[in-house]
Amino acid sequence: MHIYSKHTGALSPDAAHSTQPADAPERAVVSPVVPTPSSSDRSDKVQISDAGRALAARGSDRVSSDLDPARSASIRHRILSGAYDTVQVVDAVARRLLASGDL
């Protein structure tokens, strides 16, 4: 298949012509397409409402009072020693996530 170009020079406004026949009715104006951002300038944004901030503040107070330093150290030691790296633990966590409705 061969493609032969009709115009070999630069396209200028006076050289451009309509591809619509002269007797064809005018069509609606076409609005410009907004370019989508490239992958390099995409970014996500999160906005947290005042109600969400209030809930987070209440929750962090409660969590910090429930978790004393000794309990925190015990949990950290178990995590680092691999106590939670079992199929049973992963299964239990997945089931609780599904049951919570957060997914």
- Largest sheet, if any? none
| Class computed from helices, strands and strand pairing | mainly alpha
3D shape: elongated
Point out poorly predicted stretches.
none
- Distance N terminus to C terminus? 53 Å
Q: What is the average of the pLDDT values? A: 75
Radius of gyration: 31 Å
What key phrases describe this protein's structure?
mainly alpha, 3 helices, single chain, 103 residues
Task: Give a quick rundown of the structure.
This protein is an all-alpha fold.
Characterize the structure shown.
By secondary structure, the protein is an all-alpha fold. It has a domain of 45 residues. The protein has three helices and no strands. The model has no long low-confidence stretch (mean pLDDT 75).
Topology overview:
Layout lengths: L49 H17 L2 H12 L6 H14 L3
